[in-house]
Design goal:
There is one protein chain. The protein is mainly α. The protein contains twelve helices and three strands, in the order βαααβααααβααααα. It has helices spanning about 30-60, 70-85, 90-95, 105-135, 140-145, 150-165, 165-175, 190-195, 205-235, 240-270, 280-300, 305-324, and strands at about 20-25, 100-105, 185. It has a three-stranded mixed beta sheet with strand order 2-1-3.
Length: about 325
């Protein structure tokens, strides 16, 4: 999709001063605080890659995890690696940089990938809710409904819809005249800071973008809530307490991830952000874009015995077998 943004600077020739780069201020603080933040982000990024990478390897190598639920979880972990990589590497480089600059096209490329991957994550969470609904509400037909072909088709649709939904809106946003200043009080190129820097109002473009984002959020969260309402109704009809506990354990991890992700995202992009301070917007963005991909492997592995066993085999069993 980079061809959309290759010659963006040439398309803003009408502006008196053509912005060729933006300055990302990031988090405020002295050099010691910046070094601490850099070290913390490096650790979080490494743990995120390790945790999600371990889930991918466990799903691929353990035959017991070759089921639709874990197939979707493995693809979700793969998405999380790309999602966190759309922001953290640039944040780390920005902390060490003296100019803290990002090119015009680089800023809009980050904008595009950040929202496309975020949209794909919403769709993945909805698909995973559908999988849990089928597994608990229609257990006898689960294997015939959630076939490998359907799972691959659903995963492909998540990626395609996520990446095909934003090129046109972001392209039109990039056509707005940016004639200075070029300072973004954020650690990434986001909608609100970019619109604030445009020297011409664009209410239609802004409304289209926020309407699209809100529709994705509302339709996916409403589907997830509907699925879990029907699912919980079915769980309470299970006669044995052990069966109910197993069902709650299977769905609890997914609900925890949904709550963490949607809670912060909807505060940022659905509710009005005019009363939220800039620092709080940065913290909320940091939670859903960086901390959520870190917590996901912990949430899924701590609440799932099969995943814990598979991760133990991946991290320790193969090493033992190679040494024996």
């Amino acid at each position: 999709m980079s061809f959309f943004f290759v010659d963006l600077r040439a398309m803003n020739r009408s502006a008196t001063y053509i912005v060729t780069e933006f300055v990302l201020l990031g988090f405020p603080g002295c050099w010691e605080i910046q070094i601490f933040l850099f070290s913390l982000l490096v650790m979080v990024y490494a743990l995120t890659l390790l945790g999600n990478g371990a889930i991918i390897c466990a799903v691929r190598w353990d035959p017991q995890l070759h089921t639709p639920m874990y197939f979707l979880l493995g693809n979700f972990a793969f998405l999380e690696i790309w999602y966190v990589s759309s922001t953290v590497p640039n944040m780390l480089a920005n902390i060490l940089s003296k100019t803290k600059a990002i090119s015009f096209s680089g800023c809009f490329l980050q904008f595009y990938f950040f929202f496309s991957l975020g949209t794909a994550e919403c769709l993945f969470l909805a698909v995973m809710a559908y999988d849990r609904y089928q597994a608990i509400c229609h257990p006898l037909h689960y294997s015939t409904i959630m076939t490998g072909k359907l799972c691959r088709m659903l995963v492909s649709l998540c990626w395609l819809i996520g990446f095909l939904g934003y090129p046109i809106p972001i392209f039109f946003i990039s056509q707005l005249p940016f004639c200075g200043p070029n300072i973004i009080d954020h650690f990434l190129c986001d909608m609100d800071p970019l619109m604030a820097l445009s020297c011409a109002p664009a209410p239609i473009t802004e409304s289209i973008f926020y309407t699209q984002s809100s529709l994705v959020l509302f339709f996916t969260i409403m589907y997830i809530l509907q699925s879990y309402t029907l699912l919980l109704r079915a769980v309470f009809q299970v006669p044995s307490a052990a069966g109910r506990r197993k069902a709650f354990s299977t769905c609890g991890s997914h609900l925890a991830v949904v709550s963490l992700f949607y809670g912060t995202v909807m505060v940022m992009y659905v509710s009005p952000t005019y009363g939220i301070s800039t620092l709080m917007q940065k913290i909320l963005t940091l939670i859903y874009s960086v901390m959520t991909p870190l917590f996901n492997p912990l949430i899924y592995s701590l609440r799932n015995k099969d995943m814990k066993l598979a991760l133990r085999n991946v991290l320790f069993g193969r090493r033992i077998s190679q040494n024996s």
